[in-house]
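lol ok so funny story. i was supposed to be doing the assay writeup but got distracted and ended up predicting the structure for this chain instead. priorities right. anyway since i did it might as well share w the group, maybe its usefull for someone
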Amino acid sequence: MAWLDALRGIAALVVVFEHASYSFMAEFRQDLMPQFNTGRYGILVFFLVSGYIIPASLERRGCVRTFWIGRVFRMYPLWATAVAAVLAVNLLGFSDMRDFGGQSAATVSVAHAGLLQELLGTPSVLLVLWTLSYEMAFYLLVVALFTVRLHQRSAAVAVTLAVLAAVSVAAGVTLQASALSDLVGTGPLIGLASGALVVAICCASSGSPAVRVFGGVLGGVLALVLVPFNGTVPLWEGLIILAVMFLGTAVHRAEKGQSTWWRAGCTAAVVVACAVASAYWNSDEAPFTRQGWIVAFLLAVLTFGVALALRHRRIPRGLIWLGMISYSVYLLHPVLLAVSDGTIGRWPRDNPVLVLAFFALLLPLCALTYQYIEAPSQAWGRKLARRVAPSRRAPVEHVRPRKPQVRPEKPQVHPEKPTDPETETAHETAAEPRTEAARETEAEAETHAPV
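and the output, tada:
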């Protein structure tokens, strides 16, 4: 997992620099952005990492219920901390609350509670939360494929989504942001989608196979409706985001021997070609915007590929540590920037010293939030998941051993059963339940999984 942590650490630093450049590096940003969209680069790396590890987490658990428990305890505690910090900064007068277009506090709260606010026509309280909406849509699709036993078709899903994105641009199909909300109304859509989300998660976590399939399919349909028809990014980009995450899954399957590298390579070629073509053909954006997005996309895929090739090399501890606290870095840096803008203001000229000072203040703060918020909440989630996880084998009744009886006849040898003692031991060991240490090892891997 070290190479994934390194990727997350690099992506987090790039995103922070992108947002900090508004305040401290305005001149440099003005020269860089037409050539390279740094924010999209970092986010696309995050999406590739999520696609690589999230389906593997679900399949390793083999249980939708424990998967959702893990996700809830991984995401919500720090999410709630960041939202509370934003509200506190607003009350203290360091920044102004975003305009929610006349939506009530209850409507905004319900939209945010399911992390789908960006797909429900509701601006995020914290700007960076928009990516969590697409992450949640990906989770719903992963669970849907798992419940209907099509989760091994990651490459086909990635190719399908990428081709649809390119076809939509070639056909001139464009939708305004939050088109579905404008059609049916933001309030009704939030109510329907939030209710469907709760039903989908509860049913997919059920012990009944039929109910579980119903919940998985409902969640998948919800994601496939909201991402293309009610996203804040263009239709083609929403489809490409999902395709990129499933590309990460296809790479994981090839790396684990569940698929071939040839298939993963062909999938990557199709996704990259469709993404570049979609951005290039998109006439709604200025040429420099399209160029910056294409360069960011290609560099993100290249970065992931290089890290994958070097995954067996020793990774510097600093990058692993950055990956460990990357979720805190991602969610908390806008809050710190709001305080900075409200006190010292934005600088019209480049000031690298202030950038370094900002990082020097941000990283220790994120180390504290990881230690006292993220790590404890994840530990609680693992304990709860172990309690509710279905038993993998029936309990063995402990009976008092009897004295063996000596029989004179010669034992019969059954050729269909292994007679080698080492083979029998191996079979018995494989059937034994996992030890606590083994479960903790898997849980530690999940702890460092991306958002």
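The chain has a mean pLDDT of 85. The CA atoms of residues 155 and 250 lie 5 Å apart.
back to the writeup now i swear
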